[in-house]
Design goal:
The complex is a heterodimer of chains A (about 350) and B (about 290). Chain A is α/β, with parallel strands linked by helices. Helices cover about 30% and strands about 20% of the residues of chain A. In chain A, the strands form two sheets. In chain A, strands 7-8-9-3-10-11-13-12 form an eight-stranded mixed beta sheet, with helices on both faces. Chain A is globular. Chain A starts with 5 loop residues before the first strand and ends in a 5-residue tail after the last helix. Chain B has one domain: Orthogonal Bundle (MetI-like fold), CATH 1.10.3720. In chain B, about 75% of the residues lie in helices and about 0% in strands. In chain B, helix 2 packs across helix 12, helix 4 packs antiparallel against helix 10 and helix 4 packs across helix 11. The longest helix of chain B is centred in the C-terminal third of the chain and has 38 residues. The chains are: A alpha/beta (about 350), B mainly alpha (about 290). The interface between A and B is medium-sized, with 36 and 26 residues.
């Protein structure tokens, strides 16, 4: 078996804030194989974006990647690389696409300049060659009339076009891994589909792997081969996409699937998961999802569940793996009992 | 917000047009001083017959007690006053912008140390400091005077720029630039600085007026520009002891100061309005409806 392209091992990224230590990413492990698209899902604050920023070591004080964490990529541990070497990885071997195309581009430079700049950082291209490269990239991401568009400023372009520019910037150096952090969240639905299509098409042609971060399971279903579900700074379930949709194991994953709108479904109210994610400065002992869980019992309070192997390539951080009969015992979660008046 | 729309908003502003015309006239007279001044500003024309003469056709702004032509001195004084004000502000702005941007961008201990320096500087009464320094230093030239004025003017700019940098450094495009492998100093120069200079420019435009006043004040106190070099303040100083009978020595340079400061402030205000409402508009640009 070839080693994975990216392997994250026990990543812990903590933020030392005035209100305590926020353990935003708390022991996350995952791998991305060459050519695959791995989806990472979870609600806001579960640590998925911090994980992404940690891979490129873009965490600023008061945040810190704790010792004992390891991120291996193409045979190197990114966490121990010298500053100059990690810069050579950023934008060159691993590139990132951000959520907000409105703000991910610098308002004072033309988009052509911004794409050309990436080439000029990582190669010794002349100004002219880099400008030509920028136009070529604009054409590649499907911008009509690329010569003219290259001379325009971000505010002259629509949201969808800006996201294409951001993707063009990310792909200039033909990276081995593309980290896409909610690349379509800020766009409307038809543009979303186009952008995802574009990403899938480009990466298929260029052989790029994608780490696709999203809170939208629909996006995962259409684009990813494997999925990792994160909750409260941890991986709670990992499976192939088809496995996850058919045999979700973790109650949180079940909740996420239940909260998805379905075409042709009855016009009932969408299911929700009661309660909110606990504060990262104060993760509860035991299972971190316990208070919002329909199955929780005493064990969940006392024992922090490990990642149980429950099938081929399928793991779940839930004690139901060893006490499956408890699934019959559904009850109202604690979080919903507290807010009973509102429900 | 972009350059073009700010420019459009500015030229539509009547204040801006008037201010620009006034400043252009003043700047032109400074540049063309040797050609438009009727006399040599330092020449004592006729000590017996032309000392302290009121305005006449030959000397529209009168003559001073040393029988020099006040109009010529005023025109040449524009050079001195403007040169001091513009260079002092340019130096203060450049230094203050770099200081503030580095403090804000690097953050942590560097930020804390740099900002405590600024706090300390703020706690010193600057006019008093200037007077003490000049008194101890003795006779200082125009260059030293400019540097001294600049040295007390950069704190405000550095605070403004630091505040703006704290916002911009977390902007997605700055994180994106780092994610693309750009070295820190290049991110600072290419992506942070161009986006934080707006407040510095506004502050500087307003500061030009203040520095003109400061220079006039120092020269009036006799510790700024030294005779026989004319500046607006030193001309007033020449007539200060006989304000009641030699009014033209106070009124004309006073008007020059008034008009220039007024124009600078009007321009600064208009610039602030244009850039601020620009920010307001650009936040509307982000609303989903307009995209």
């Amino acid at each position: 078996m070839t080693p994975p392209l990216l392997e994250i091992d026990n990543l812990r990224t903590w933020f030392y804030t005035d209100s305590g230590v926020a353990r935003s990413v708390d022991g996350v492990s995952m791998r991305v194989d060459a050519g695959e698209t791995l989806g990472v899902v979870g609600e806001s604050g579960c640590g998925k974006s911090v994980t992404a920023l940690s891979i490129l070591r873009l965490i600023r004080a008061p945040g810190r990647i704790e010792p004992g964490s390891a991120i291996r990529f193409e045979g190197k541990d990114l966490l121990t690389l010298a500053e100059a070497d990690i810069r050579h990885v950023r934008g060159n071997r691993i590139a990132m696409v951000f959520q907000e195309p409105m703000t991910a581009l610098n308002p004072v430079f033309t988009v052509g300049d911004q794409i050309a700049e990436v080439a000029r950082i990582h190669t010794d291209m002349s100004r002219k060659e880099a400008a030509a490269k920028a136009v070529e990239m604009l054409r590649l991401v499907g911008i009509p009339d690329p010569e003219r568009r290259a001379t325009e400023y971000p505010h002259q372009l629509s949201g969808g076009m800006r996201q294409r520019i951001v993707i063009a910037m990310a792909l200039v150096m033909n990276p081995a891994l593309l980290i896409a952090d909610e690349p379509t969240t800020a766009l409307d639905v038809t543009i979303q589909a186009q952008i995802l299509e574009l990403l899938a098409d480009l990466t298929r042609r260029l052989g790029t792997s994608i780490l696709l971060i999203t809170h939208d399971l629909g996006v995962v279903a259409e684009n990813c081969t494997r999925v990792i579900v994160m909750y409260a700074g941890e991986v709670v379930e990992e499976a192939t996409t088809s496995d996850l949709f058919r045999h979700a194991h973790h109650p949180y994953t079940e909740g996420l699937l239940g909260a998805m709108p379905r075409v042709g479904g009855h016009a009932e109210r969408l299911a929700t998961i009661p309660g909110t994610v606990p504060a990262p400065t104060n993760w509860p002992a035991g299972c971190r999802f316990r208070e919002r869980c329909e199955y929780a019992w005493e064990r969940c309070e006392q024992e922090h569940p490990p990642l149980y192997q429950i099938g081929e390539g399928h793991v779940s951080r839930c004690h139901l793996a060893v006490e499956p009969e408890r699934r019959a015992n559904r009850h109202v979660p604690i979080a919903a009992q507290v807010g009973a008046g509102a429900a | 917000m972009d350059g073009a729309s700010v420019r459009r908003r500015l030229v539509r502003d009547t204040r801006v047009r008037i201010a620009l015309v006034v400043l252009a006239v003043i700047a032109l007279s400074a540049i063309l001083a040797p050609h438009i001044a009727p006399y040599d500003p330092k020449q004592q024309l006729d000590i017996t017959h032309l000392n302290g003469q009121p305005p006449s056709l030959a000397h529209p702004f009168g003559t001073d007690p040393f029988s020099r032509d006040v109009l010529s001195r005023l025109i040449f004084g524009t050079r001195v006053s403007l040169a001091i004000a513009l260079s002092a502000v340019a130096i203060a702005m450049t230094f203050g912008t770099l200081f503030g941007a580095i403090a804000g961008y690097v953050g942590g201990t560097v930020d804390a140390v740099l900002m405590r320096i600024v706090d300390a500087a703020f706690s010193i009464p600057t006019l008093l400091l200037l007077i003490v320094v000049i008194a101890l230093w003795g006779d200082i030239g125009i260059v030293s005077l400019t540097l001294l004025i600049a040295s007390i003017g950069w704190f405000t700019v550095s605070r403004l720029v630091r505040a703006e940098t704290l916002v911009v450094r977390n902007a997605d495009y700055v994180v994106a630039a780092r994610a693309l492998g750009m070295p820190g100093w290049r991110v600072l120069v290419r992506h942070v600085l161009p986006n934080v200079v707006a407040p510095a420019i506004i502050a500087s435009t307003l500061a030009v007026g203040n520095v003109i006043l400061l220079e006039a004040g120092l020269s009036f106190l006799g510790i700024g520009v030294r005779p026989p070099t004319p500046s607006w303040g030193s001309i007033i100083q020449d007539g200060s002891e006989r304000v009641s009978d030699l009014w033209w020595l106070t009124v004309f340079p006073g008007l020059a100061i008034l008009i220039t400061v007024f124009a600078c402030n009007a321009l600064g205000d208009a610039l602030r309005d244009a850039l601020d409402s620009g920010q307001l508009l650009s936040s509307f640009d982000d609303a989903p409806l307009s995209s």
